[in-house]
Amino acid sequence: RYREQVLPPSIGVRLAIEAGSTMGWERYVGNSNNAAICGLTGFGLSAPIEDVMSEFGLTVDNVVDKVTGLLK
């Protein structure tokens, strides 16, 4: 199947980064301690894009922290 070709079970650490809703990503990354999702969990925030991305954790520093945590 396509999903197993793109995300084979042998990949133990998974991180989804979504500038939209995080809803539904858990079916791809899973719900284990080796999986995380960075993305928007709400709507209606009006601010400069840098502030919005920071508020929802879509920053380089946060993504690096998530990956580092998953690899431990």
Task: Write up what this structure looks like.
By secondary structure, the protein is of the alpha+beta class. It is built from 4 helices and 2 strands; from the N terminus they run H-E-H-E-H-H. Strands 1-2 form a two-stranded parallel sheet. Helix 2 (26-29) links the parallel strand 1 (14-21) and strand 2 (35-40). It is globular. The termini are far apart.
Distance between the termini: 30 Å
What's the total helix number?
A: 4
Order of helices and strands: HEHEHH
Counting DSSP E segments of at least 2 residues, the number of strands comes to 2
Computed structural class: alpha+beta
Radius of gyration equals 13 Å
Mean pLDDT: 86
**Percentage of residues in DSSP E strands:** 15-25%
Stretches where pLDDT is under 50 for at least 5 consecutive residues are none
Main sheet summary: 2 strands, parallel
- Walk across the major sheet and give the strand order: 1-2
Portion in helices: 25-40%
Oligomer: single chain
The best one-word shape is: globular
